[in-house]
Amino acid sequence: MTLARIVVLFALAAVAEIGGAWLIWQSVREDRGWLFALLGVVALGGYGFIAALQPDVHFGRVLAAYGGVFVAGSLAWGIVVDGFRPSVWDYVGSGVALLGAAIIILAPHSASAEG
């Protein structure tokens, strides 16, 4: 159950953060209007709350692991929403980032490292 919770929360955080940033990008760079920016700010705020629901109590560890999810999620968002065509190096980099995220969040942590 905890692994499923971690994965779902990371996925929701990615949608909120990447989606929020995309909305602001659309407002500023694509002249889509300030409503897009406002919705983006709300989504980015939601990201902060979603990230805080992770079961690990260490902010730095959660955000470091989320960094890998953000890399892969950003490329996926670009593919699905913007028609971006990643190179093989984009895929390799994304895989490395996700591996790093998995190591950070799933590795056993000793009691001395917790405090």
Task: Tell me what you see in this structure.
- It contains five helices and no strands.
- The protein has helices spanning 2-29, 34-51, 59-82, 88-106, 111-114.
- The radius of gyration is 16 Å and the shape is flat.
- It starts with a helix and ends with a helix.
- It is a multi-pass membrane protein.
Q: How many discrete structural domains? A: 1
Q: How many strands appear in the DSSP assignment? A: 0
**What kind of oligomer do you see?**
single chain
Order of helices and strands: HHHHH
Can you give the mean pLDDT?
94
Give a summary of the structure in a few sentences.
This protein is mostly helical.
What are the defining features of this structure?
YnfA family protein, membrane, mainly alpha, 115 residues, 5 helices, flat, single chain, transmembrane helix, cell membrane, EmrE-like
